[in-house]
Amino acid sequence: MSFDRAAYSRVGKSLVQKHQQHLDTQLEVLRQALVNFASEHASDIAASPEFTAKFTQMCVSAGLDPLKLMSLRRSSSSSQEPSAVAVRVMEFCQQTIHINGGLIAVSDLATQLSDADIGLTVTEAEVVKAVDALQKLGPGYSLITINSQRWLKYSSATDDMSSDQHKLLELCQFMGGYVTYRLLRDNYGWDGERCRRVVDEMISQALLWIDNGPPNSTELLFWVPTNLG
């Protein structure tokens, strides 16, 4: 009897599809169980940071957003649990640090964590409470003020933002998002070495991006990768 490669392939594909359908069914059962559990034990989950962390891990593994899940099942209170918001803040910072250098306005972060489709609104005050909770767990999250606006600074290391870096960001905001060595010298009286040191530090932390400037220009522009306007 000759070997029918096409038939063998069809059988193999059929087995794979059945196995995938079985896994999908199991995953859906797990998701529904988590939804039901959140509905029945929302207060218990929120009351224990350890319980919250474990439940959040299970939700993420199952492809569920824990904050959205708790929002859909929470009581009539309009406020979010700080621990649930803290988890989302932590995830967002880790996912976007390579884009914004770990710096984002609190107002922008609240908008990013909100979801109009399910009626989920996260306020700036809730973000601040969440950051306070994260700060108690260790270094890496800090709130700073740049020209009267609150910002969250996240760092995977323990280094804090220096006063020179803070001044550079203030000038960036005034200039619409960028600085140059000349602007730093003219506004702060820094010498060339101090300008280069601060800029190099912020470039290494992904807090500044280099722009060669307009054609025929010999002056480099250094942009912040987030909106300071």
From TrEMBL:
Lineage top rank: taxon: Eukaryota
Entry GO CC: ESCRT II complex
InterPro entries the UniProt entry points to: ESCRT-2_cplx_Snf8, Snf8/Vps36, WH-like_DNA-bd_sf, WH_DNA-bd_sf
Alphabetized SUPFAM superfamilies for the sequence: Winged helix' DNA-binding domain
UniProt GO BP: protein transport to vacuole involved in ubiquitin-dependent protein catabolic process via the multivesicular body sorting pathway
Pfam families: EAP30
Family, similarity comment: Belongs to the SNF8 family.
Protein name: Vacuolar-sorting protein SNF8
